[in-house]
Request: fold
Amino acid sequence: MTTWLVTGGAGYIGSHVVRVLQASGRGVVVLDDFSAGIESKVPDGVPIVRASVLDRVAVEQALRDHQIDGVIHLAAKKAAGESVDIPLEYYRENVVGMLTLLEAMQAADVKALVYSSSAAVYGTPMSNPISEDFPMQPESPYGETKVAGEWMARDCGVANGLSWIALRYFNVAGAASDDLGDPSVNNLVPMVFRALSNGERPQVFGDDYPTPDGSCIRDYIHVADLAEAHVAAAARCETGVRAEAFNVGRGEGTSVLEVMNMVSEVIGTDVNAEIVGRRAGDPPASYAATAAIESELGWQASRDLRAMVSSAWSAWQSNER
Ligand code: WQD
Reply:
C-alpha cells in the first residue's frame, strides 16, 4: 500500500480527493494551512499537517515522518479574476509553493506527483474541443502560475526522474455529500445560488456570443468525477510514468443558459435569470477533448449536469441552515 500526501486536502476539491484515495485502499495524509480549508472536511483518522506549502522544513518533515510515496498538490490560490489584482500573491503561493514542494520532495526522495492544473492554461482556445497539445496561452496571472507549475514538474521529470501528471480541470461543480460543498462563491453555480438566497436574479454575462443560444459554453465536471481522476493519475504515477498533462472534463459543452435551466428544474421554479453585459476576458467557448485521459488513464466522467447542480444545491441549502 502506498501513502499519498494531499496538499490542500481540507479544501473543496481536496476533501473529495482524500475520500476517493481512502476508498482505493491507499494511506492518506493532509497538509493544509487552513487559509481556505476546513478541518471538519478531513475524515477522522487522517493525519493533518497544519502547514503551508511555502514552509520547506515542515513539508519535508511531513514527507519523511509519514513515509510518503507521492504527493497530490492542490494547495493554491484559484481565482483568475483576483489574480489580475494581486499577481504577486498568486506567484508566491502557486509558483514558490510548487518550487518549495518540489525541493522538499527531492530532498526526501519522493518521486510521484499529481499536479492540479487548469483549463486556464489554454486561455482563449483557437478551436473546440481543446486537446492537450494546444498552445498554452494563459490570459491571467493565475493561468500563468499553472503553466509555470507544469514546467517545473516537467523539468524535474527530466532532471531527477519525477513521475508526474498534471490534471487540467475544466469547470468544477457539485458535491459528493452535503458537508463537502464549495464554500467559495467564485463560479457560476454558487453565484446563481447566492443570488437566489439573497432574493436577487442570477445574472447571465452576455447573450450575444457566437454560440447557439448566445451565452458562453463551458465544460462542467462533477467534483466527484474529478476526484476519481486524481486517483487514476496517482495509480499511473505509482508505475513510474513520465510527463503527461491531461484535460479533465466531460468533453461536452454546456451554455450558461442551459445551466440556468437546469437550476430551475432542480429547484422547481424558474430562476428568472437576468441578461447583463459580457464579463471581460471570457472566451465564448471552452470544452475539453477527453480521448487522452480516457485511453491513458482509463478515466471517464460518469456524472451529468443534473447531478452536479442538484448535489451542489443540496449542499448549499444545508450550509444555509
Ligand atoms: C462560467 C461561465 C461566465 C457567473 C474560471 C476560471 C478558471 C477556473 C474555473 C480555476 C462564464 C458565466 C458566471 C455568473 C455568468 N478556475 N457566468 N454569471 O470563467 O469559465 O473559469 O473558473 O481553475 O481558471 O477562469 O468560470 O464559473 O466564473 O464562469 O453568466 O454569475 O458562467 O461568464 O461564461 P470560468 P465561471
User: Anything to note?
Assistant: The radius of gyration is 19 Å. The longest helix spans residues 87-108. The chain is about 40% helix and 15% strand. Residues 78, 80, 118, 120, 169, 171, 187-188, 191, 203-205, 216, 218, 256, 279, 282 surround WQD (CB under 6 Å).
